# Entry
Amino acid sequence: MKLRRISTLGLFVMFGVVLTLSAVYGQRGTDTAKDPVAEADEKIIAEIHDHNEIMTNLEYLSDMIGARLTGTENLKKANDWTRQKFADYGVTNPQLEPWTVAHTWTRVSATAQIVSPAVHTLTIASYAWAPSTNGMVRGRVVYVKARTMDDLTQYKGKLKDAIVISAEPNLLPAPDQPAPNPVDVPYGDSFLLLAPRPPSAEPVYGPDFRKFLQARTAFFKNEGVLATLTDSGKPDGLLNMTGMGGRNYDIAGIPAAFVSSESYGMIWRLLQRGAVDVELNITNSIGDKPTEVYNTVAEIRGSEKPDEIVILGAHLDSWDLGEGTTDNGTGSMIVLEAARALQKVGLQPKRTIHFVLFSGEEQGLVGSRAYVAAHKDELPKISAALIHDTGTGRVVSISLMRNYQDREMMDKVVAPLHSLGLVELTQRWMAGSDHSSFEEAGVPGFFCLQEPAQYFQTHHTQADTFNQAHEADLVEGAQVMAAWAYNVAQLRDLLPRKPVAASGTIAGN
Ligand SMILES: [Zn+2]
# Structure
């Protein structure tokens, strides 16, 4: 069953803007002559429409390389292959920029079943950067209801050899419930979640809660807990995935696994009747020394201001249950296609356009943070970064991440792109992808607001495969990104930064 797609038609805003392009691009347009930037955009859009290699590249990345967990051989293969593709396309200076992870982690196997009061096979996958169990282990399921360390004290001495669950089952939307429209979702709500979470659900974000989770894991380890199980919160037997090791690539204190929402519901229902015993066996392979990993980078040098930079980015790494097609092979292949098309059209942008395929995104934007650290001297001359990272859906808007000071210039930048179906710019703020690393460093970091296209059902799951990719939407994404990069590179000035508040912090965040 396919969820209803957003009707972009219904979202069209008639702009009717008479552009004063000389003000933003520092060049004259006459009433009769076409604006050169709009003319260049037409060429870029046509090149991508007529000659794009997105699906061929995405199929190769998905099927011939596959999942790309940071630190694995597969990601290195993808780094080498993308560097070679940039080189084949004639894009300048393709290279791998190194950074280091403390431990590599590779999934081997995980099986589990309820053994009492009845036998049921569970659909299960180990959290990444979690340890193995000590072979096959068997324990009683305990529901630990705790949000604070104080709450946890009541469980002291009661968790020896327990298998712990810490939340009620997630509520999933009805199969025919339309996907949320990312443009219309009320400001402040997340369209990342499939459904409203029950009041007992654990918070998704927040540094305090993350600290509590770490302390809780240490408490469980001390108490002799065998493993923890988490509801995947996805439909149709799909598993979810994230890591336990945080940005430092540490190994978690105890084994931990996701189970499908069907499996979790079964455990939960049986627990209402009495004792539930589960058997599980998890094996993971853990690297014992720091390992070098890489971001793939390439550039088209600016003809007039080569030291000023515009960045297009997406993350090449993925979780490892599927093929990492929509998270984020799609964004990566769009950035690669934007580079191919801009190079092929031969427009010679004024500023340098930098193409970056980050790694370590899934463990907390670690590769883009490493990029920002490695390029810290260039930050004042990076005009902006635009990131594509929510799957295959078409780009409906660009989010300015509350960079209100850029609104006027960005309106002009995207004006030639409304013919692609792009609606008005949005200030919607979303953390959780590589644009945040630039925002935190004071560089405008924008992201592509996309139609959902089942992204939040399938990303991080075993169903994130090439089947999820929609060619027309990806072509549009590449057209938006390539033209955006060129237009920003042609602006008279760098895009302004957020005003710095008196306290020295960045205002508006
Ligand atoms: Zn992603």
User: Anything to note?
Assistant: Residues 325-345 form the longest helix (21 residues). The two ends are 39 Å apart (CA to CA).
